[in-house]
Design goal:
This protein is of the alpha+beta class. The chain has 10 helices and 7 strands. The chain is 48% helix and 12% strand. The strands form 3 sheets. A 3-stranded mixed beta sheet has the order 2-1-6, sandwiched between helices. The chain has a two-stranded antiparallel ribbon with strand order 3-4. α4 packs parallel to α10.
Length: 256
């Protein structure tokens, strides 16, 4: 039955695309076998229609990783620099990344505005706010700037040079306007709400969720080799990079 349905489908595709007599004569296989191999599909002129051979089209949802972290937490910095960004660069076609800078911070409301107390002091609150504003301005591209910041000796001093290296058209003044204004305050409050809504509640940072889920097993696998974890969880055809492997264990945490 499957072979019959495939034959009908490919015959319809051929008809819609006005297949020529030359095409029909050059194909030595019945329609039920056109997608059996790449060579057969190419010979019969249906390589594009046989989606399992079409590498340009996604064939599964990407793996979504959310990282809840603090800008000055050593364990967070180690994971982001050694695991997350290298993995994202190599596997960007099959994974999405969400960064939530807040971690073990606390917030207090005063007449509609929020003040924040951070685990590693005021500088960490400033680092969290800078990274939050850059994420809001640049979206996924902000990962490069944050990687640059977190891999530097001084996260705060690295912020402006890192932004200028990757996005010279984005002014530092625009970032600081967000940091010091109502927009940054609102964005950080949203990070607080998102972090406090985690189920189960986070106990430390870095706190990692995969496709919205956190378990001890997923956390351990992500910290040991995020690259291998993403490759194993992706349900579509694996990209060539998954055959290369990348393993750098990071196991430092900042407890809540």
């Amino acid at each position: 039955m499957l072979g019959f349905n495939l034959s009908v489908l490919l015959f319809a595709v051929c008809s819609l695309n006005k297949c020529s007599g030359a095409f029909i004569n050059s194909c030595r296989y019945p329609p039920s076998q056109w997608c059996d191999s790449r060579d057969t599909a190419a010979e019969c002129g249906v390589l594009e229609q046989c989606t399992k051979f079409n590498e340009t089209k996604p064939n599964a949802d990407p793996v979504k990783l959310s990282l809840y972290y603090e800008s000055l937490c050593p364990g967070c910095r180690g994971f982001l620099v050694a695991q997350l960004v290298p993995t994202f660069i190599m596997l960007s076609d099959i994974m999405n990344v969400e960064l939530v800078p807040y971690g073990n911070a606390q917030e207090k409301e005063d007449q509609g505005k929020y003040t924040f107390i951070c685990q590693h002091g005021e500088n960490e609150c400033l680092g969290n706010m800078i990274e939050t504003c850059i994420l809001n301005m640049l979206g996924a591209k902000a990962v490069l700037v944050i990687f640059c910041m977190e891999s530097g000796d001084d996260v705060l001093k690295a912020a402006q040079p890192c932004l200028q290296v990757y996005f010279p058209d984005t002014t530092w003044d625009s970032v600081m306007k967000c940091v010091k204004g109502d927009e940054g305050n609102k964005l950080m409050h949203e990070n607080a709400l998102k972090t406090n809504a985690l189920k189960p509640p986070h106990e430390y940072v870095p706190w990692i969720t995969i496709n919205g889920e956190h378990t001890d097993d997923l956390q351990e696998k992500a910290m040991t080799s995020l690259f291998n974890l993403v490759c194993s969880l992706y349900k579509g055809e694996k990209p060539p990079a998954c055959g290369q492997g990348l393993k750098k264990k990071t196991n430092s945490y900042c407890m809540n």
